[in-house]
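Hey all, quick one. A colleague (J.T.) asked me to put the pyridoxal-5'-phosphate job into the tracker so the inputs and the structure tokens live in one place instead of scattered across chat threads. No bug as far as I know, just bookkeeping. Sequence used:
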Amino acid sequence: MREPGFNTKAIHGSTPKPDVHRAIRFPIYSGVAYDFESAENIEGAFTGRIPAHIYSRSSNPTVAAFESKMTSLENGHGTVALSSGMAAISNTLLNLLEKGDNILASNYLFGNTYSLFMHTLPNFGIETRFVDITRPDTIEQALDGRTRLIFFETISNPQMIVPDIVELVDIGKSNNLTVIVDSSVTSPYLFQASEYGADIVIHSTTKFISGGATSVGGAIIDLGNANWSNFPSLQKYHHLKQDAFLARLRKEVYRNFGSCMSPQAAHFQSLGLETLSLRVEKSCANAMTVAKFLEQKQDVTTVFYPGLDSSPFHEIAQKQFNGHFGGILSFELENKETSFKFINALKLIRCATNLNDNVSLIIHPASTIYADFTPEQTSEMGITDKLIRLSVGIEDVEDLLYDIDQALRCVA
Ligand code: PLP
């Protein structure tokens, strides 16, 4: 039998059971509880002997249909869908870590992820050691016997840094670390984490996957590459071998923290997957045109986009992301005042904090997403006062260029 291609899988999925009415799209099961024929059967479901949905905070048919599509698109072992990308990150770490453990994380991260690592996890006795992922040779110096995992993003935003993922996975494997990749801005269409030997891939499905910011969501995919049989936090589940990570997640962390994706969101997310490749292609093509346009403008001092020849990450991005470079770019104007003036002059591009929407969105990261950090911290993260992030949507690119051009003339 022929292995279906990416788009066929994104559209048809592999729903666990067809709808009883043979509806083409899997229905929204918005209910909470499920009826059992007998006390023995519900006992069997609770003990795991009978596979069944029991209560929608733990699992739900519409959410399961989305999860199974994600597993298939990532060539993974299994997926858990959650209420947001941050829920996906926090649940993964809480599933894998114990008091006294530490992790290695890229120092180029989304602001809330950075905040989770720096401000929240220390209260649970978990330390984060931030490392420069562009200097893999320095990473091993940060390790000790309680280092459990390494976490990084495929393309960091707003810095547009692209790590060499082969090298990072190698370092992880040779030091017995679980390798976790946040692929929110690349999606499974641009980056296949399983081919790189990563252990877990995480998505904020709020981004490309949701179909253009239709709903907030997250996904954790166990790619089936890890050997969980010695992993300390999963001790109670070691007998489940390859299923240990997902079993503890579903039975403890995900269920007990109440991080479920709603069935309504799962329906939007499944629909979003159907058009994922078309939207990603258009957004990447638009981003490349906009980046080249900005590079020629005198008032734009620097453009950060891995698609440009001037980017130090051009070659590695070309190899890793299916010949594409993503839908986000950033650039610098003279200073904060000029940046604000430019943003305020835009008429089509909207000022908002999201990424990979169908609508082009612009933001000044230093005064918004990174406002809670000290100047020293933001400088370490490469966030300057003159930096602007642009998430390029799928509008007609000529209209985007026209809007940018007229706004630049306002600041000149
Ligand atoms: N990871 C990355 C790379 C992000 O950009 C974001 C949000 O912008 C998140 C995770 C968090 O996702 P969510 O907003 O769905 O919680």
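Adding what we noticed when we looked at it: The CA atoms of residues 345 and 407 lie 5 Å apart. The first helix runs from residue 6 to 12.
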